[in-house]
Amino acid sequence: MNIWMDQLKVLQIENMLTIASVVISAIALIVSIAVAWSNRKTLNVNISKDLTVVEAGTAFFADNNSEPASYDDALLLTMEVVNPSPKDIAFFDLRAFNPTTNINVNFLTRRSTALQHRTLPLWMAVDPDNEKDPKLTELNIPDANHGIFKANSFTRFSILIFPGESSEKLGFSFKVAMHAKFRKDPFAITSRKRFKFHGVIYDISSWKQSLPQSKPSEQKST
Fold first, then answer.
1. 3-state secondary structure of 115
2. Where is the chain membrane-spanning (predicted)?
3. Residues 150-167: what's their mean pLDDT?
4. What's the pTM value of the predicted model, to 2 decimals?
């Protein structure tokens, strides 16, 4: 009888050890999944659905010690990126383009400006016709067409684009250092097609018509 009791105790101990081993393995798996989930690369990207028409002369570089350096008629979009992950994420191939021809369209970065303007703030007149109480807002343009979205950060870029007068469509996109599993950039002009991208296509067929028309000069009677 004692032999059977001893064997039963041994079996109970073995079962407890087996259960403990399974529980420990399950906990380790849950912890590893949680760590992998918290360390995953992810971005929340918001690109403005509408463009703002910027009249010539209302966007300019200036500070208290320099004359304003203004730009021609342009279109303005904003992009906001939240990187909630604990890792920096690189972006590259930031571009504006004509989606019909896939030819690049000029847009403003710090690197593309004249050397003497690169450290100056870029301003835009919010109400350019109000000479008595002019209001300005500062535009945060990117340094270049590539850069870093810092870990646990929020980034807002103002993209000032100079399309042709006859342009009817405008594309804007950029890629990030995350491999795309399925969707590829259909407008990619480099070999970097397998990276995740964000982009939008705008209808700008009437953008020039929305600019203020020049006022006729006042004629004095004689």
1. helix
2. 16-37
3. 94
4. 0.74
